[in-house]
Amino acid sequence: MRKKNSSATETEDETRVSDGDETLIIESTEISEDGSVATEHSNLVSRTVYKTVYAVTFGVVFSSLLVSRLIVPKDSMVAKALHDGTIAAKKAVEEKEQLIVEVAQETVDILAGGEPTGVPL
């Protein structure tokens, strides 16, 4: 642990944590008298959340692709249904995303005092 700055009311510490080939730098900031800032291990928490989500996503997608490619014959109706269902799901997500953007823009317009554009909900 290496101290960067030290005073009676404020200290900043830097800790290096080795994670395989990567080195995480964790900064700790404490303001003891007013107590407004107390951030510790934020990079470690962020990295842990990222790795957890990555592992879950990889597991779901990898197993789905493995099952679909090993068990389902390429030119079968099941393979066609999987393909068509994937395309339909992507299109539905894009449509919902566009609707959310339009509703958010209309909300901003209403809050700014403008007229609503008539986006159907």
Question: What can you tell me about this protein's structure?
Answer:
There is one protein chain. Helices cover 53% and strands 22% of the residues. By secondary structure, the chain is of the alpha+beta class. It has a domain of 47 residues. The N terminus is likely disordered.
Short précis:
53% of the residues lie in helices and 22% in strands. With 121 residues, it is an alpha+beta fold.
Shape: flat
E-strand count: 4
How many helices? The count is 2
Q: Major sheet, described briefly?
A: 4 strands, antiparallel
Radius of gyration: 25 Å
Strand ordering within the main sheet:
1-2-3-4
Share of residues in helices:
40-55%
| Strand coverage percent | 15-25%
- Low-confidence segments, ≥5 residues, pLDDT <50? 1-14
Distance between the termini: 55 Å
What class, by secondary structure content? alpha+beta
Q: Encode the helix/strand succession as letters.
A: EEEEHH
- Look at the structure and give the mean pLDDT: 74
Key words describing this protein structure:
disordered N terminus, 53% helix, 121 residues, 2 helices, alpha+beta, flat, 4-stranded antiparallel sheet, single chain
Write the layout of secondary structure elements.
Blueprint: E1 2-6, E2 10-19, E3 22-31, E4 38-39, H1 42-70, H2 77-111
Antiparallel strand pairs: 1-2, 2-3, 3-4
